[in-house]
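Could you show me just one protein sequence together with its fold in token form as a worked example?
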Amino acid sequence: MRAIYLEQGEPASLAEVTAPAASGGDVLVRIEYSSLNYKDALAITGKAPIVRKYPMVAGIDFAGAVDESGDARFQPGDRVLANGHGLGEDHWGGLASHVRVPADWLQAVPDPFSTRDAMCAGTAGYTAALAVQALIKHGLKRDAGPILVTGASGGVGGFAVMLLSALGFDVAASTGRAEETSYLKSLGASAIVPRDELSAPHKPLAKARWAGVIDSAGGIILANAVAAVTPRGAVASCGNAGGMDFPVTVAPFILRGVTLHGIDSNHAPMSERETAWGLLAAHIPPLRMHVMAREIGLAGVISAAGELLAGHIRGRIVVDVRL
């Protein structure tokens, strides 16, 4: 099968490799679409130690049709998807023509999504939906005030903006690219916050501006966002594109009662996954998602990984693995 193949100490390659062994799981899926995510780009370029076992096939998500199944829950031809679960890290992943996985990792592609629609959303849309769920469970209401979304030009941020807006929230989108203003407003942002405003030296407390935050940046941006959350507000942290450090004080937590929710999209239980995908399917029409997506084939993945890490990619990259 064709796959984006990773060997320790060697550059990533598009290679012909042996199809996945039966020991990999009880369901063989013929992949139709995958996507290129930040974690994939780190693994493909070797910029971070994402891969835990070599050799590895990259790709943390996929959607396709069941070819063979040893589990009664899935039959040949069923449309399925998977995100996380160690795909592309310690289990061969979705940037390939086939994958074999445990049945417990799979879920049905939700109506009205096609397999392409599912990967337009992919791990980014699913993670954004988990973050939105966390804010809703916290008790944030639509009239509580604006919700800040950092990294809004990226995949997670773009889906967070679309989903929050569709649910009736007032959304402020933060970006370092002023030229994306019209695009972000087309997704549903009512205000644009220049990234520089969140990159200044950190203050323990800032003027309270945000009822909630969905952050995919981390670092000083997350610290400044937390410092400006209103009393009893909430922050959902789901990424580290701006750094792993979190230079914050306890002030927002003990003086304003701010809550920080961590979003683990890799190991979330199936009940949360199904709710998140249901939220996307109910509120994001497929045609609206396609505004965010650029489609490539497997042959374009390695070069696109470098573009993504350089910050040159808007929205999502969908990979048709048959090309």
